[in-house]
Amino acid sequence: MNVKTIKKRILSATAVALLGALVSSGGHAASDVRTLVITNQPLPSILQSGENDAFKDIGTVKSLEKTSPVRVSKPKEVGEDASPMDDYLIEVETATTRRVAQLQTEYQRLESSLNDLAAEIKSMQQAGRVSAKDYYASVAEIQTQLQGGTTPGNPRLLAKLKEAQENLEGLSNSISKFNTFAVKVGDVSSVASFLMQSVQATYGLSGAVPEDHERLDELEDSISNMVTVIERLLNTTNEEITRASGYLAAERRNLRTLALAVANGDVYGANISNRLYSQVNQGMFPVTSNGADTNMSSSAGFTGGASGMMATPSEPKPLVVVKFDRPDVSYEQALYTAIGEAKDKYPGARFEIVAVDPGAWNAAKRAIEAAKAKRNAERVLRSMVQMGVNANDVVVSNASRQDARTSEVHVLIR
To answer: Cβ(264)–Cβ(336) under 8 Å?
Structure first.
């Protein structure tokens, strides 16, 4: 028996059973019978329409075409939006993070102080240039008037001299400011060194993340650059102090000589102590001017040329003799020239001032002349100091001469 025969028999049996059930139901309506029908044949017409439709209460399955589609999410790919490292790279605040923030705050405060110091030194340098310009303008005007000839103690020149002195004092004050500034820069340098040590020590803290060390690297580089700027400021400050100190000392000596020139209405030149020691190319000859006699000659040991250059003479030699035979003896120009030439030939020379009084007179007259000679010697000493001779390089003594007719002052080089 094949499969087709079996299917036909099953369908026939099913139809017979269905008809039997309808007949046995008597007066009951077909709609009251719950029947399961399995067939591949069209239903009888009695079952498809009318009041006895046996399938009117059976719900129908909705078409799949009318139902909402089921959405299936596609798995996220590994990328920027989703990474296995997202949880690892989350921002973490550690003890090192907080320490780095403190160090950055200290660095910013130190950087602000350094910027203020840089602006301050520029301001001081500019003020120094202005003072120097005003000073040289006053000195140039005085020198011009002296060169053209003027009266002794000219009040206009005295006013200019006072103005030049005030400008020079301004430069002196700038040196004090630079010294104070150097202390400030030194303090900033100390703080920067301490900050660098703190940064390097922070590397050793436990519990840090790589981002902490990256920020420490940046901070360390910034501090290194700051240390370079601080060192440059210190070098500039030291150079300014050294240059201004030497310049101020030289100009003070020049100003003393200039004051002497204004008082006498004559021009002398630069201060003797500021003269450059140069080789003497010709012999030194005696100079005589207004009562001042110089006794310098080649026979006295002053010979020209490089072979004659010596630190000090081999023995004391007379340089200038000033005879005070009248009240207004003008000796400064001759003294200035003689001392300058002596310093050129003997850079390390020292001087002796001898107050000479006449020894042929009686005791009372000699006492008067001795006191007068002493006062004249002190006057010459003051003139030499104003010209730039160091007072410690000058000794003063007294003597009597039988052939002297008035008080004299002898200047010797030793």
So the answer is: no
